[in-house]
Amino acid sequence: MKIMNIPITQSREWHKLQQDLKEESFLEEGNNYHYLAIKKSTPVGNYLYLPYGPIVGDKQGIKPSYNSLIKLAKRTNSLFIRIEPQSLDYINDLPIKPIKSTDLNPKETWVLDLKGTEEDLKNKLPSRLLRYYRNAEKNGITVTKSRNADDIKYLIELQNALAKEKGINTFSEEYLKTEAKQDFATIYRAKYQNPDTNREEVVAAGLVFDDKTTRYNLQGAQNDTGRKLHATGILTIQLILDAKEKGLKIFDFWGIAPDNAPKDHPWKGFTAFKKTFAGYERQYAGTYDIVINKPKYYLYNVLRKINRLLRRG
């Protein structure tokens, strides 16, 4: 059975990205299953990570997928296999251990359906942001898109400033530059012509990935001027309208806080913004480990806890 609806993080294109990043990865397409496994190194040993994988066509694909992964783990001397299945419907009987505190990809995401007419789509967009979008040019804001990887510097600058202000971690400059070089990547910028200084500045930027059906809105940042001008809202509407024009079916906002998240959850503000769009929540199964070497797996987790405590201190 040919596997359909493979997420971008399990695709051949993502495999190429890992190769460009000098990461060792393994793409396996078998009888009714598909996975991309990335080998990660720790001081204790290796493990395999499957972002939003493995993918199985139906229940018949579970056993061969699992057996293939076990063989790969032993061949690569891996301590465990970290998986992010699309659903637990088929794999509840596997010996998996839930990892609640370290989901690498979001368990919940907000998705907008792009089907129908452009007018149908605009009716799903926040009226306030649409108004800002329609008046953007009059207010000195223009949105441009680029496939030139060098333009990722604008996003990097904005993210670095935000990370310094909020005390958060961001992807490395090398990682973002490598992502920007991929065929599936497009860089967007919101530029503002400041009437006081008569100078143009980039006030918001974003990086999106497209596959055959979906636009993934993975990276974005804005500065104080951008916040005052609602630049991210204007930029997001352009991302959505362009995805529709391109013939894509889904716009994935990529990650929201769960409903029961505390008020200080780092995604709380982002989530409120994303949910102003008339989309719907998509839930994945979460992150789970298949343990291969129990003693070293235990040591790995102990060292991780110690490292987190040291960082907090």
Describe the structure.
- The chain is α+β, with helices and mostly antiparallel strands and 313 residues long.
- It has two domains: 8-105 and 285-312, 3-Layer(aba) Sandwich (Aminopeptidase); 108-283, 3-Layer(aba) Sandwich (Aminopeptidase).
- It is built from ten helices and 14 strands.
- Helix 4 packs across helix 8 (231-245).
- The termini are far apart.
- The mean pLDDT is 90.
Structural key phrases:
34% helix; 2 domains; Aminopeptidase; 7-stranded mixed beta sheet; 14 strands; single chain; 313 residues; alpha+beta
In short:
The chain is α+β, with helices and mostly antiparallel strands and 313 residues long.
